[in-house]
Amino acid sequence: MSEKDNVEPLRRTRPCPECGRPSSRKSYPFCSERCRNVDLGRWLSGAYAIPVAEEEENLKPSEDGD
After folding, report:
1. Residue 6 gets which letter from DSSP?
2. Domains of the chain, with CATH numbers?
3. Which of 24, 30, 54, 26 is nearest to 42 (CA)?
4. Which one of 10, 33, 56, 59 is at 20 to 30 Å from 19 when CA atoms are compared?
């Protein structure tokens, strides 16, 4: 048994957010580079968005006729 075998992982494995397989240390929290890239592609394409509620002031027509 080598020293590497005695090293505890830094984080517990958890299900990959893309496919559900156990996460890998190298691609955490994903299981692979493929799943990591799929997620990145969704962010870059705008598939994920943080909802924003417009304030009431922005919904009222402006007083100066714009």
Report:
1. G
2. 11-47 (3.30.50.10)
3. 30
4. 10
Token digits of residue 23: 């996460």
Q: CA-to-CA distance for 23 and 9, rounded, in angstroms?
A: 12
Give the type of residue at 51: P
The answer, as to whether pTM is greater than 0.90, is: no
Tokens read off for 6: 């005695």
Question: At 16, is the secondary structure helix, strand, or coil?
Answer: coil
Q: What are the angstrom distances between the C-alpha of 44 and each of 9, 16, 30, 31, 54?
A: 30, 19, 17, 20, 23
Model pLDDT, residue 42:
95
Looking at residue 31, the DSSP 8-state letter turns out to be S
So what's the pLDDT on residue 53?
84
